[in-house]
Write a structure and sequence with these properties.
It contains nine helices and 18 strands. With 371 residues, it is α+β, with helices and mostly antiparallel strands. Strand 8 and strand 9 form a beta hairpin. Bound molecules: zinc ion. Zinc ion binds at residues 286, 288, 307-308, 310-311.
């Protein structure tokens, strides 16, 4: 069993009513003047820092990070949510909308559709300057959907067959050559471009045919009845999550401390029976704890010190009953995180995390430069 100081240094104690030692004590001499062990040094950080991927899918990444302060873990989380750039639909020009959805609601909905495009290939558009949209800062999509009854070759309506009843994200068609929407004749008289963009070359040269599209084809955007139609042009730009949540590259991103269940003394006899029924039994195939022996000789063995989502909370609750706090303790390792990133699909979580590291690094460089 760990001594009291060791416990304070390395763990947060998860209590029944409150968590103890939750404050990060990374400052020098937090535990006395000769506390060499607790002092931050670059050398020590290099030796102790570990990172390990535990689960990886196309749009999901879970990894463990050890030997780093909560300030860093949280900085990465916040940078990922708010400062890693992303492309999203920012302006929508409606030509026709006879659906029941109001223009502004539909435009907002389009903004939330994830776009498969690498923001590093684009420049940020300065909204205040009203500069022209170019192939370097804008992606243009158009949508033209009309719901109608399907007709056979002789023009007779086919019974119960309606075309374009549902509008999906796949109805957003990429225009690599830029805007096709004509502005007022006034612009033409002034010699300005007559559409909303001024592309010097097709984006297909850089991104290839069908190089840019929505991440998912099947996001339902609207429902129409025969006769209703939607025609619009959408301009997609680069920005960051702190500007609007639609520019966040992740659906969510969070971390938690690694939990540890420790028996302060052996759990035997009646206690073993109570412990198993409170924390383990009704969960099918639960393998975190094992009951050995029976009757007075029964004892509980911990098979997984981390527990699982199902039993961890129950063990914590048990520590609030009777004298269980004397027997069981739930700890969370202070500098060991399980970090999870769920991407919206434009870029993989690894790329997003690396970008967050680069952003933090450039912030540090900028701060050092001002000293
Ligand atoms: Zn469990």
């Amino acid at each position: 069993m760990l001594d009291r100081i060791e416990l304070q240094k390395k763990f947060v104690t998860v209590g029944f009513e409150e968590n103890k030692n939750a404050k990060d004590q990374t400052y020098v001499n937090a535990f006395g003047s000769n506390d060499e062990e607790h002092k931050f040094t670059l050398q020590k950080f290099r030796e102790e820092f570990k990172i390990k991927i535990t689960e990886k899918r196309e749009d999901y990444l879970e990894f463990e990070m050890e030997g780093i302060s909560a300030a860093f873990a949280n900085a990465f989380r916040r940078i990922i949510l708010a400062e890693v750039p992303q492309m999203a639909i920012e302006r929508v020009y409606f030509v026709q909308n006879t659906s029941v959805i109001a223009d502004e609601i539909f435009a907002h909905r389009l903004g939330l559709v994830p776009i498969l495009a690498d923001p590093n290939m684009f420049e940020e558009y300065e909204k205040e300057t009203e500069e022209l949209l170019t192939e370097k800062n804008t992606i243009v999509f158009k949508m033209k959907v009309k719901c109608e009854k399907e007709r056979d070759s002789s023009g007779v309506a086919v019974p119960d067959s309606i075309l374009h009843e549902k509008v999906y994200s796949k109805d957003l068609v990429w225009l690599p050559a830029g805007s096709e929407l004509n502005k007022e004749d006034l612009e033409r008289e002034k010699g300005l471009p007559t559409t909303y963009s001024n592309f010097s070359e097709s984006q297909e040269i850089k991104f290839g045919k069908n190089g840019i599209k929505t991440v998912h084809d099947d996001i339902l955007l609207a429902k129409l009845v025969p006769g209703q139609e939607i025609e619009l042009e959408a301009h997609c730009m680069k920005s960051v999550g702190s500007d609007h949540a639609k520019f966040s590259p992740v659906g969510t991103c969070w971390y938690r401390l690694v939990p540890t269940i420790i028996f302060k003394k052996p759990i035997t006899g009646t206690d073993a029976k109570v412990f198993m029924s409170e924390c383990s039994d009704p969960i099918p195939n639960h393998k975190c704890f094992e009951l050995k022996g029976s009757g007075a000789k029964a004892s509980v063995e911990i098979k997984s010190t981390r527990g699982c989502d199902l039993c961890l909370e129950r063990v914590r609750e048990l520590t609030g009953e009777g004298d269980w706090a004397e027997k069981v303790i739930v700890l969370k390792k202070r500098d060991h995180y399980i970090f999870t990133i769920e991407s919206v699909g434009s870029r993989t979580p690894e790329v997003i995390f690396k970008e967050a590291v680069n952003i933090l690094s450039s912030k540090c460089q900028a701060a050092l430069g001002t000293l």
